[in-house]
Please model this.
Amino acid sequence: MDLINFKNIIDESLISFINKEKNTKIKEILVHSLIGGKRIRPIICLFVFKNFFGDIINFNQDKTSIIYKISLLPEIIHNISLIIDDLPCMDNDNYRRNKETTHFKFGIIPSYITIINLLNNIFIEFKNEIDVNKKIK
Model:
């Protein structure tokens, strides 16, 4: 599988993650914050997974795999850190790469709510997927 296919699958997984949000305002902020980008972090994760588990996982057919969901984590956490970094209490940036920052476009309080919502959605997404008692062999 090549980089473009990995990126497309990551984008599809991210859109699926966003579409689970029921609040339309938060969903709009998630689209603004998460859509776009090179997806380097999740692609690196997928290459690591492919290197270690390539013979177990069919990366071409199993696009809903937990592996793809896990690969979203660095991207989501990175975007949370960007939202935080741009807030007035930090850098107070109004633009990032010629795009309005989350707090500048939607407000400070909605930005904080989105951060909390993203963290909560990560836990909801994975609570039934991960067995903390399972050991890696």
Q: What stands out?
A: The chain has a mean pLDDT of 87. Residues 3-126 form a domain with the Farnesyl Diphosphate Synthase fold (CATH 1.10.600.10).
